[in-house]
Specification:
This protein is α+β, with helices and mostly antiparallel strands. The strands form 2 sheets. A 5-stranded mixed sheet has the order 1-2-3-5-4. α2 runs antiparallel to α4 and α10 runs antiparallel to α11. The longest helix is centred in the C-terminal third of the chain and has 27 residues. The chain is globular and about 65 Å long.
């Protein structure tokens, strides 16, 4: 969320957070829900005009916690909104400062929310903006405390089973020997997310990233060697966006360091940056290939 605050300030966009004073405890994976929030807020900033406001609200709605992210942007055509949560889908709406999108963030966001047994959707009006909502279920024990439910026992196969013994909604942590090879270069929560994605689709996703990033790296190499500053900046921003969507955090961080630095073209060490970029890209590529080999 802090990163989005910085990006919003660059466009003079205000982020306003509102929430109920007392919210019940939830059974969630915090890094994954943070990823969801970051994606929704960054999208709101990307597609909002400068000097507008993005409202983030967290509140209880019946037996759920509901989160909304509302912008004052361009709005999304109704016939395009239903496809937003599919892979590689983009809309006719353009970002207001040329920010890039690979069309993967909302697909991953939907899978995270579905893994928490929640729902996600968007409501939008052309010319007025969009509001993205998602819900997270409140655990039964918390609802009982708030008197939304009375303590109950369920009967299965003639045996009484207390509600407390029901299967938890807590995301199950799994261990994979290859995680140690991937985790230095990929977010652990992203590695975990991939476990819930169909292997065939996962391979297609990674292969597309590797194909696109390979082209970007070739063009970047050329731009850096020729010291084409503007082209280099544009290509690095594209690589950052692709790395962000796949959770390649070290690669994304290196791109960010260049894009957000105050070092001018005259004193920039092009050779050093190219060396670091190539080394980190190869390591990230190997980590992604390890995921594909599972």
């Amino acid at each position: 969320v802090l990163v989005n605050q910085v990006l919003a300030e660059k466009k003079q966009i205000k982020l306003i957070f509102q929430g109920d004073e007392a919210l019940p405890s939830l059974m969630i994976d915090p890094p994954k829900i943070e990823q969801v929030l970051n994606n929704l807020i960054s999208n709101a900033v990307k597609y909002s005009f400068p000097k507008t406001t993005v409202h983030i609200r967290v509140f209880q709605s019946g037996s759920d916690i509901r989160v909304s992210v509302r912008d004052e942007g361009q709005g999304i055509p109704e016939n395009e909104a239903s496809k937003l949560f599919e892979a590689f889908q983009t809309t006719s709406v353009k970002s207001t400062a040329g920010e890039k999108s690979t069309g993967l963030g909302l697909m991953i966001t939907k899978k995270i929310i579905a893994g928490h047994e929640g729902k996600i959707w968007v409501e939008s009006t052309i010319g007025k903006g969009s509001t993205f909502y998602f819900t997270l279920p409140i655990p039964r024990e918390e609802l009982e405390k708030m008197k939304y439910l009375s303590p109950v026992s369920s009967i299965e196969g003639g045996e009484e089973k207390n509600a407390d013994a029901e299967q938890s909604n807590e995301p199950i942590e799994q261990v994979n020997d290859k995680d140690s090879l991937c985790s230095p270069y990929l977010d652990q929560d992203v590695i975990d997310n991939y476990r819930s994605i169909d292997p065939g689709f996962l391979n297609e996703l990674i292969e597309m990233f590797l194909e696109q990033s390979s082209i970007l790296m070739g063009e970047l190499h050329e731009a850096i060697e020729n010291k084409e500053w503007d082209r280099m900046t544009h290509l690095t921003d594209q690589l950052r966006g692709s790395s962000d969507n796949l959770g390649a955090r070290q690669l994304e961080q290196l791109c960010n360091e260049f894009l957000e630095s105050d070092i001018g073209e005259a004193v920039f060490n092009f050779d050093d940056f190219l060396s670091k970029l190539k080394r980190l890209y190869e390591s990230t590529k190997k980590a992604l290939q390890e995921l594909m080999s599972r």
